[in-house]
Amino acid sequence: MKHRILKVALDAPLDTCFDYRWRGADDAPEPQPGQLALVPFGRRESVGLVVEVLRHTAVDDARLKDVLALRTQLPPLSPAWIALCAFAADYYQRPLGEVALPGLPKNLRLPNTVALDKALKKLAVVPATDAAASAAPALNPAQETAAQAIAQARGFAPTLLYGVTGSGKTEVYLQAAARILAAAHADGTPAQVLILVPEINLTPQLENNIRARFPGLPLATLHSGLAEGERLRHWLAAHLGQARIVLGTRPAILASLPHLRLIVVDEEHDPSYKQQEGLRYSARDLAVWRAHQLGIPIVLGSATPSLETWQHAASGRYRRLELRARAVQDAQLPAVRLIDTERDKPAEGLTATLMAALKRRLERGEQSLLYLNRRGYAPVLACDACGWISNCPRCTAFMVLHKPEHRLRCHHCSLEQRIPRACPTCGNIDLQPLGRGTQRIEESLQLLFPQARLLRIDADSTRRKGSAQAAFDAVHRGEVDILIGTQMVAKGHDFRNLTLVGVLNPDTALFSHDYRAAERLFAQLMQVAGRAGRTGRREGGNASEVLIQTRYPQHPMYAALMAHDYERFAQALTDERREVGLPPFVYQALLRAEARALDTALEFLAAAAGCLAHPGVTIHDPIPMTMTRVANVERAQLLVESGSRPALQAFLKEWMRLLRAMKTRARWSLEVDPVDI
C-alpha cells in the first residue's frame, strides 16, 4: 500500500490549501498535480484540485483525512493551467480554490461521476463533417497584411488590430487562425485557437461562420447560456484537445486548452470582459497574461480600443495593425449628423428630422435602427400633484415602468409591483410616466408608422432561450423595417440592409460621475453607428447616415464622432487622464463593504484605511457608493491607488492579511483594477 500526501485546493473562502492522505495499491498509478479529487470537507464531500503531491506533511496524523477518490477518467489539468489560476489568485487577492474550481463546469464538481461518465461517452462538440468549406473571401491589402503578420508571429506577440467598424476584423481572425492551424497540421503538431467575444448573443453568428469555414474541424463553445451537461461536454472537448477552435465569452479564458496556439479577444474594450461578482477578473487581461505564459500570439481587436490597450500600443508594448477602410467594396462609413433638440424639439421622443429620415427609409425598403440604452417604458412614474415618484423601497433607485406587463420593476433588486391606480401619497389618479425607454419608443412608432414592421430587442424581449437569436435572424431576413434596441444591438451584428441609425438621449453619460463614462459612450456610439452602410451605397438609394439627438451638439466628443476620429478622442482622453492621475497612468483597487446599516460599512472601511500605511500608496476616504442601497443592503467603498503596480500589489497582500483578521459585521470584497467607481 502506497501513501502520499495530496495538497488540495477547495472552493472555500480561505487562504490555504488542505493536506489529505491518499492510500493506493502498490501497482496504482501515482497521483498527479492537476487531478481532481473527492475529499471530505466539514460535513460534506467536495471536489478539489490536487496542486501538489508530497511524501510528508506537518499536519498531525490524527487530523489527516483520506482522499475518497481521484477523477482518473480525466487527464490532469496542465501545469500551465494551474499556473494561470495561481496568477489570477495572486493578482486578484483570492484563494486558489476560489479561482480554479468555479472555472470548471458545475457537473465536473459533483461528488458522483454520473454526469462526467455520461459526457465522456458522447462529446457534444460541433462534429467534423464532409461538407465543403465555404470559400474564404479575398482579403484587401490591409487585411492580408494583418492576417499574415498574426499567422507568422513567433512567441508572445500582443497585437492591437485597430479597424473601423465593418473593416473585416473577423475575417482577419479567421484567416489568421486557418493559417496557424494549417501550419500546425503540416508539422504534425496539435493546435487550438481561442476566440473570445464579449456577449452571448454575439456567438451564434460567429459560430455559424466558423462552422461554414472549417467544416472539418470540431468546434466547442463555452458560455453561461449553455445547459450544464452541454457545457461539460464542450469543456471536455477543449480539455482533451479534440476541439480545435473554442469560441466563448468571458469564462472561456479559464478553459483548459492544452494545445493553445492563438488567442483572439474581439471587441477588447468591452466592459463585459470584467467579471462583476466573485472573482472580479478581467478576461482580456488574463488572456494577455496567458499568451505571455505560453509564448503565443494574441490579437486584441476593436474599432474603439480601451485606453489601456491604446496606451500599450502607443508605447510600443503592443504592435498596432490598422484597417482604415471597410472591407466591402464601395462601402463607406456612415455620415454622422447631430440634431440639436433645443431647436428641433422631440415629439414622443423623436425629432421631425429623425421621423422624416425614417419615412424615407420605409419608402425605399431599407432598414432603420433606433438606439436607446434604456429598457422599459419609462424610467419613472410620477404624480404632478404632490411630487411622488416611483422610488424602489429597497434601493436608492427608481422603479421602472413596464407598461405592457403592467408592472413597476426595479432593475437592481428585481422587485416588482403593480402599477398603482392612484398616487399612494395624495390619491391623484393622473400619474404620468417621465422619460422614455424602448417600450415607449416602440409604442410611439406604432402610432407614427402603423404600416412599418417593428421589432424591439432588449433584455425584456429576449428573456427566453433562443429568442435573441430568433430576433436577429428576423432582421437579417429582412422581416423588420425598424429595429429598436439597447446595447444588445450595438456591436458585432452585420445588418446588410440597414442604412439609418438614430440615437436617442445619449447625453446623460456626458455628465456621469464615472470618469470612464465618456470613453464608454464614444465606443457605444461608434459601434452602433457601424451597423449602418455595411454593404455599400445602392443605386438610387440614400447614403447611410447616423442621426444623434442631443442638447449639446458643441461637445468635443460629438465632433470626434462626426469625423470618425477615435485617435483624436483617445489622445484627448489620454492627456486628461495623465494630467489628473487616472488609469492607465495609475493602478487602483477598490474595497467595498455591505451592511444593514451604512455606519457599519463605513466604520469597517475607516478601520481598514487606518490599519496599514505603505510608501507610494494613496488611501482615500471611505464614502457611500453612488447606488448606496440595493435590496436593503447599504454599500460603501474605499479607493486605493498607486503609480506603481508592484507597490500596490505588495500593499494589497499585506492589507488582505490584516483585513481577514478584523472582526466586523460588514461583508466586504476587494476588486483590483475596478471598472466602475
Structure, explained:
The chain is α/β, with parallel strands linked by helices. The chain folds into four domains: 2-102, GIY-YIG endonuclease (3-Layer(aba) Sandwich); 141-323, P-loop containing nucleotide triphosphate hydrolases (Rossmann fold); 335-377 and 436-575, 3-Layer(aba) Sandwich (Rossmann fold), CATH 3.40.50.300; 587-672, Alpha-Beta Plaits, CATH 3.30.70. It contains 17 helices and 29 strands. A seven-stranded parallel sheet has the order 9-10-8-11-12-7-13, sandwiched between helices. It has a six-stranded mixed sheet with strand order 5-2-1-4-3-6. Helix 12 (467-476) links the parallel strand 21 (454-457) and strand 22 (482-485). The chain is globular. The N and C termini lie far apart (57 Å). The mean pLDDT is 91.
Low-confidence stretches at least 5 residues in length (pLDDT < 50)? Answer: none
Count up the domains: 4
Bulk shape? globular
What oligomeric assembly is this protein in? single chain
Q: Give the % helix.
A: 25-40%
**Contiguous helical run count:** 17
Structural class: alpha/beta
- Average residue-wise pLDDT: 91
Ends distance:
57 Å
List the helices and strands and how they pair.
Elements: E1 2-9, E2 18-24, E3 36-41, E4 44-54, E5 65-66, E6 69-70, H1 79-91, H2 96-100, H3 114-121, H4 141-151, E7 157-163, H5 169-187, E8 192-196, H6 203-213, E9 219-222, H7 228-239, E10 245-248, E11 260-266, H8 283-294, E12 297-302, H9 307-315, E13 319-323, E14 335-340, H10 352-364, E15 367-371, E16 380-383, E17 400-402, E18 407-409, E19 416-418, E20 431-434, H11 438-448, E21 454-457, H12 467-476, E22 482-485, E23 498-503, H13 517-529, E24 545-550, H14 556-562, H15 566-580, E25 587-595, H16 598-610, E26 617-619, E27 623-630, E28 633-642, H17 645-661, E29 667-672
Parallel strand pairs: 2-5, 7-12, 7-13, 8-10, 8-11, 9-10, 11-12, 14-24, 15-22, 15-23, 21-22, 23-24
Antiparallel strand pairs: 1-2, 1-4, 3-4, 3-6, 16-20, 17-18, 18-19, 25-28, 25-29, 26-28, 27-28
